[in-house]
Amino acid sequence: MTARHEEIADELRRAIDREQYTVGSRLPSESELAAHYGVSRGTVRQAVAALTAEGLIGSRQGARRVVLASRRSQSFEELRSFAQWARAMGREATGRVVEQTYRPATHEDAVRLQLPLRTPVLHVLRLRGLDGDPVLLERTVYADWISPAVESIEPDCPSVTQRLYDDTGLVFAYGEHIIDAVACGARDAELLHVRRTSPLLRVRRVTTTREGRPVEWSDDRYRPDAVTFSVHNSIGNNALSRKTAE
């Protein structure tokens, strides 16, 4: 027999998938959910903990929980971090900072992050993996106002998105993505365990807050044998999704 907290967790998952609770919105309070489902707050806490572990919602001490993702395969209309996407697929995401340094903002940094030229910004090269296999290199530039919070995160943190939410309440709300292919350079080949000049899938993205304030811009390079992107078209929908390669 299914435990009541598992039933409630599944009902909340379906509500998130139906966009009854949209990405970036807050769930009702524990007491409101307990009254709605006719259970104790402890039962609600168990249900919410399951969704937090799956990366669907963020949990922050003393604050209402925020919806971070749904269970659907990731659409670029629905912003989801690599770690959240991996957990939804039943995979273990790993992360390791290879290099981290402050540099004066270049013209490109200044335009993308809407900052004055030469503002100190944090550059991070991060290697991401699925179940221990390296699949992605992220070259991310963080705006000056969020850089100190990013700098304080441990180098092997699996989800920077979740940690920034936990520490600061920041929600990555909007993203713009440009996808193309590039040849693998010597350093990338060494880190991703592929041959030099191998093709890599590149996703360049800018991510902002709900108010449109740029948080980061990144050049992400995926091993094509590990991750693919697919497009599903219909008359009312054109969603680009990320999934594991088969």
UniProtKB/TrEMBL annotation:
One Pfam family cited in the UniProt record for this chain: UTRA
Keyword terms: DNA-binding, Transcription, Transcription regulation
InterPro entries: Bact_HTH_transcr_reg (IPR050679), Chorismate_lyase_/UTRA_dom_sf (IPR028978), Tscrpt_reg_HTH_GntR (IPR000524), UTRA (IPR011663), WH-like_DNA-bd_sf (IPR036388), WH_DNA-bd_sf (IPR036390)
Keyword Transit peptide: no
Domain annotation HTH gntR-type: ranges: 2-71
This protein's record includes keyword Membrane: no
CDD domains: WHTH_GntR (cd07377)
Molecular function terms, GO-annotated: DNA binding; DNA-binding transcription factor activity
PANTHER family per the UniProt record, alphabetical: MANNOSYL-D-GLYCERATE TRANSPORT/METABOLISM SYSTEM REPRESSOR MNGR-RELATED (PTHR44846)
Protein name, UniProt field: GntR family transcriptional regulator
Organism: Streptomyces murinus
